[in-house]
Amino acid sequence: FDFFLCSHFGIQGTSRPAHYYVVWDDSNFTADEIQKLSYYLCHTYARCARSVSIPAPVYYAHLAAFRAKDHIMSKVNVSSSGSDSSGGSGDNVATSQYVEAVRVLDDMRTSMYFV
Questions:
Q1: Average pLDDT over residues 8-31
Q2: I want to staple 75 with a disulfide (CB 3.0 to 4.6 A). Which of 14, 21, 95, 101 is the partner?
């Protein structure tokens, strides 16, 4: 099923509903429970004292992805022209470089350092 949710009050009329698709539900929530959970999570974003348009975990995933991109760009030699490897062991080296570039230190794993 799908639903629209307008979870925040728009400043100067800028509120916009978000369209959600429930593809799979392992928790066996009812439609009302999923909608309530989505709504409540829109009020838990740490960077804003007001509610936001989409649930906070979505924003946090976005922030973590941007942080990972910055780590990759600073530690891995990424060419903008595309991949020039012909396969084989070169792919494994590149993969290990990416894994190392985004590895989170053990003492930071339990904190939301990207916020």
A1: 85
A2: 101
User: Burial code of 43-58, b = ≥16 C-beta within 10 A, e = fewer?
Assistant: eebeeeeebbbbbbeb
The CA-based dihedral angle spanning residues 47, 55, 16, 13, taken in that order and rounded to the nearest 10 degrees: -30
Rg (CA), the chain: 19
* DSSP, residue by residue, 74-113: HHS---TT-----STHHHHHHHHHHHHHTPPPGGGTTS-T
Could you tell me if 3 and 20 are in contact, meaning their C-beta atoms sit under 8 angstroms apart? yes
pTM of the predicted structure, to 2 decimals: 0.66
